[in-house]
Design a protein that fits this description.
By secondary structure, the protein is of the alpha/beta class. It is built from 16 helices and 15 strands.
Amino acid sequence: MQLEEDHLGPHLNGKHLRPESLMMSYGYNPEWSEMAVKAPIYQTSTFIFKNAEEGKAFFELAYGLREKNAEEQLGLIYSRLNNPDLEILENRLRLWDGAEDAAVFASGMAAISTTLLALLKPGDVILHSEPIYGGSDYYIKNILPKFGIQSIGFQASATAQEVSQLLDESGVADKLAMVYVETPANPTNHLVDIEACALLAKKHSTADKKVVVAVDNTFLGPVFSHPLKHGADLVLYSATKYIGGHSDLIAGACAGSAALMKAVKGMRTFAGSMASPWTGWMLMRSLETLKIRMEAQSRGAETVAAYLKQHPKVEKIYYLGDLEGNPQQQAIYEKQCTAAGSMIAFDIKGGEKEAFTFLNNLKLIKLAVSLGGTESLAEHPASMTHSDICLADRAKMGIGEGMVRISVGVEHPGDIISDIEQALAKVEIAVEAEV
């Protein structure tokens, strides 16, 4: 039976099939590959044209020399331009966010840098939330200025009115070209109101210039938050994290409207920042279990967070499931998130020494950066992922010396808690020894 389809994907009896139901087969025809139930790895650099005329037609479309005809498709040329594994993957990936198109990259930073370079030009201003991932922060503040692109940062906890006032007082509001937010923020889990950002972007858009809203949605993945539905133009991911989910690949992704993605993919072609066929195949494998993995991790994190909240050695936790004391953040959460996810940060009483003692004594949880994998990971943001942010800025962002970030994996939450318990006990011994 042939399913009916639109840009949101197949539908059956008038109802769109859910993404998790389509991850095993969508976009792939077994007849292409000897009836193999899974798409093979198209490990090739180039593709053969049937004739010279076909090659000419494909390149005309690839390089934007003409618009394609109604029934015409861009054929396979060269794996820097297109590859079956990447095309199938992108067709599946876009379904989670309801995007018209998607692109995959060699890393999360490749996705971010390629997108920013595709859509910003000298003289533009990018307004961005803080904190964001340390690599993104460095790129925006240290690399983009070399291309004549200015940045203005605002605290993730700021109100829409405060952000608007900050922009107005900057004196360069008329040069605003992009609002870039990371929500939830890394590592504090602060939420940014995407709808408010979209309204701000609309206010500063003109007939000749659309201010683009780009959202890094890595922390909640494409399962628990859908920024495009709240007014964002583009959604970005470090696909290394939940989308890959097994700590065995590096990749990034961007999804959005066909028009914006055309520009992003065009820049990707000439930057050479696309993912490899092997990585594309691995990501297709991971998408099949994305929802069940993230749901299991989120359930585990809820239990772990409850334990941390009551522990006498823990000063504060940063977790989306514990926002009752912050009505502003709670309101944003209820509007744009469907679950709290599996990222938890917390402040250990003391500072770096106490945090290091805790980290050095973990047994089950691994001391490593990254997140979203099947194994639980812990790290020290101030000296690791966010160490290239100056001390004063880290203090404003709430990234203290005693902060630890944990990515909860799929292990039994009781075992994760047992490991945290014994590691925190060592912190207590270390403190007592100094008295």
